[in-house]
Design goal:
The structure is a homodimer of 183-residue chains.
Chain A: E1 22-27, E2 32-34, E3 42-48, E4 51-57, E5 60-67, E6 72-73, H1 76-81, E7 88-91, E8 95-101, H2 102-110, H3 113-139, H4 142-152, H5 154-159, H6 162-169, H7 173-182
Antiparallel strand pairs in A: 1-8, 2-7, 3-6, 3-8, 4-5, 4-7
The structure holds a DNA duplex (30 and 30 nucleotides).
Chain lengths: 183, 183
DNA sequence: ATGCTTTATTAACATATGTTATCGTCCGCT
DNA sequence: AGCGGACGATAACATATGTTAATAAAGCAT
């Protein structure tokens, strides 16, 4: 698994300076910020709370990533290219985000060379993150992946309901419950 | 799974022009081009043949990606940063590659703006590739992944020995044999 | 306080995969 | 032609997970 959290960067942006370009938005738990199939119009940055990415598979929803405070969240492909998002973005807890439209995103980030380098580096890191996650899936059993998660990202286990974690591990909540039982 | 092959680009480079910067190398099957744990000194581009990426996990080797003609292959992290590679690169068939040292790579690619854009786009695509592969792992059974492979990348199944494919699917060759039997 | 929803545990049964081992075939090499 | 290794199929048994269902505890809203 490797570090699932570890924000891709601290990204200390002077939000006040760009206040006029950014909307602050607070939503209760279980609120959809982006629906699978829709085009992503906003990039998000989490001020407070917790989001998950998930998609529908044969009627069941499958969670594949979690995000917390100070992390940037978006359906990158959709936000970039205007294609329908392959997944939904939903709040797990009551959450406050900064929402940035594509136009304003470009105004803030593309103008500043320091930021564009940051964006590129973020891409490389995210690629590395997914490749490691993928390797972990091939080589480890669900139980081993759960142990890894406990070790590398205990904050996820503390804050996220267990059935989302089971889904993230690729198993049912019943099976995760059994794994916890025999540990 | 989505398209596992589909080279990230055609990349029509005029090899002759850079012949003095590139080594052509031909190796028999089962030859290691880069050993897990070593630092990647060369990037490769396949002229003819087929390579696999794999790593050792508790004494068993696990294959996680295949590459064919006209595809660029490297241990990106290691090649970029000089850190030990997390995996090995090995030939499956007798294979001919173009090998480019880091220094010459920079000379060819970093000098040409058209190429740097290409490199960035390759990164985004590879990120997307891994994220889709990862999603496929969470949502599908081994049998479903095999069916996807049959549909989206039949050339892999035709050219690669079955036990490598089993490993790639995250199962044993015995289990893959059973899956094929009952299809 | 009450009632509803969400979440987690447990049981029972069916099923798929892992493990180990054997066997047969094919291919490449000498 | 002959030999040895690589490859794939199959069997038998152990084990983990999926599925369905029942139950209980905790959280939240009215």
């Amino acid at each position: 698994m490797t570090k699932t959290h570890t924000p891709d960067s601290p990204l200390n942006i002077d939000w006040d300076k760009y206040a006029h370009l950014i909307k602050e938005k607070t939503v209760p738990a279980k609120t959809i910020l982006l629906n699978e199939g829709d085009v992503s119009r906003y990039g998000y940055f989490i001020k407070q709370g917790c989001l998950r990415l998930w998609f529908n598979n044969k009627g069941k929803d499958i969670t594949f990533q979690f995000f917390f405070e100070n992390e940037a969240v978006s359906s990158v492909e959709s936000f970039r290219s205007g294609e329908p998002s392959l997944f939904s973005i939903e709040s797990i807890e009551p959450t406050t985000v900064y929402a940035i439209s594509k136009k304003n995103f470009e105004q803030i980030f593309m103008s500043n060379p320091g930021y564009t380098a940051f964006i590129q580096e973020t891409m490389v890191k995210r690629m590395s993150h997914y490749s490691k996650l993928f390797m972990s899936y091939i080589k480890n059993t669900p139980e081993e992946r759960y142990r890894e998660l406990l070790e590398n990202a205990p904050h996820i286990i503390k804050r996220v309901p267990q059935h989302y974690i089971a889904s993230y591990l690729g198993i049912t909540s019943v099976s995760l419950s059994r794994i916890r039982n025999r540990m």
